[in-house]
Amino acid sequence: MVKLPIYMDNHATTPMDKRVLDAMLPYFMEKFGNAASRNHSFGWAAEEAVDKARTQIAAAINAKPKEIIFTSGATESDNLAIKGVVEFYKDKGNHVITCVTEHKAVLDSCKALERAGKATVTYLPVDKYGMVDPDDVRRAITDKTVLITIMAANNEIGTIHPIAEIGRIAKEKGVLFHCDATQGVGKIALDVEAAGIDLLSASAHKIYGPKGVGILYVRAKGPRVRLTPIIDGGGHERGLRSGTLNVAGIVGFGAAAEIAVREMGQEAARLRNLRDKLQAELFERLDEIYLNGHPTQRLPGNLNVSFAYVEGESLLMGIKDVAVSSGSACTSATLEPSYVIRALGTDEELAHSSIRFGLGRFNTEEEVEYVAQRVTQEVRRLRDMSPLYEMAKEGIDLKSVEWKRD
Ligand SMILES: *Cc1c(COP(=O)(O)O)cnc(C)c1O
């Protein structure tokens, strides 16, 4: 019997790896020093640990240790990259290019700059698989463009963008390229040199590390990227991010990054296998189900599916012992369908029917079998109660039906 509840929402966050916790533990008690204390051994020990983590994380993306700035998470890193570049380069231009399926940390940073009158932003569309077209990026560049910000892989549908091509275009046009690689680092090969990335955001808690610690990679050479900080204070992190470093968290991020990169090959293969199995079982047992995201250029642990005639939220309620995520986010009082799924051109009903399965390091084959079984059972139960599904099965074209209210 599998142990319940089952966690299959690893794009939202991941449990910590025990090896990461073991690396962190000494830095809460015996090695509690402030990494900025330059005049005693407590400070030196903390600084040494931070330096090691910086080296581990730099190695994971082919950067140099001094190019890694520690932050509180990818949300802060995205804010720093976008607002920091726009502010610093304001005499050069004020145009930013991004895409409609970016994480809110990117989109809302762009919106805040627009509201403040500090930037004009182009939001590029995506194709039906959620992929941005590099030619669209090229066409959007003007002589006022200072930044392109496109994610490595999407957190809802797992689609992997052609970032090396986008990086090449950015270099060619002399525009900086920021990449939110929070879902990419440790899961797919990422190389800031090969992909022409100038700024990169990542977060520990998406790769089996602790919550509340992230990084921003800031290219030092070719070109040297400049930023205006958003937090002022003691001048930590080369003046780009003041505040006492979260030493234990940083040590955890370093350990998590090293493990993720070392084990990436086998882990990706294992997750892809489990994911494909889950996908195959659902598609074999159920009709009227649709894959959201790219069929092949997709994160190995990602499966996002719309179950027609079933509300995602109702499905979640019916499978309480399985932790997955629905495409409808309770952003406000109203239940809005996911803007990412909507951007694929999916109609509103189907967008409301989407479920995201996020497989991770600790999921097992037994869990996948259980989830496939439970979801199939629940979808069938909900459809049995659905007059719409019944009508569709009888061959009635629902779009032609005139709905009367009385
Ligand atoms: C989780 C996530 C973030 C936010 O990261 P935090 O460290 O939780 O602030 C940003 N971008 C993407 C793509 C994410 O998946």
Strand content: 5-15%
pLDDT averaged residue by residue: 95
Helix and strand element order:
EHHEHEHEHEHEEEHHEEHEEHHEHH
Give a quick account of the main beta sheet: strands, pairing sense, barrel closure: 7 strands, mixed
Overall form = globular
CATH superfamily of the largest domain: Type I PLP-dependent aspartate aminotransferase-like (Major domain)
Q: What is the count of helical runs?
A: 13
How much helix is in the residues? Answer: 25-40%
Q: What is the CATH C-level name of the largest domain?
A: Alpha Beta
Which fold does the CATH topology of the largest domain refer to? Aspartate Aminotransferase, domain 2
Question: How does CATH name the architecture of the largest domain?
Answer: 3-Layer(aba) Sandwich
- How many domains is the backbone divided into? 2
Structural class: alpha/beta
Number of strands: 13
Poorly predicted regions are none
Termini Cα gap: 50 Å
Instruction: State Rg.
Output: 23 Å
Bound molecules: pyridoxal-5'-phosphate
Question: Which sequence of strands runs across the widest sheet?
Answer: 2-8-7-6-5-3-4
Care to describe what's here?
The protein is α/β, with parallel strands linked by helices and 406 residues long. The protein folds into 2 domains: 6-12 and 264-379, Aspartate Aminotransferase, domain 1 (Alpha-Beta Complex), CATH 3.90.1150; 18-259, Type I PLP-dependent aspartate aminotransferase-like (Major domain) (Aspartate Aminotransferase, domain 2), CATH 3.40.640.10. It is 38% helix and 14% strand. The protein contains 13 helices and 13 strands. The chain has a 7-stranded mixed beta sheet, sandwiched between helices. Bound molecules: pyridoxal-5'-phosphate (PLP). Pyridoxal-5'-phosphate binds next to helix 3. The site of pyridoxal-5'-phosphate has 13 residues, from helix 3.
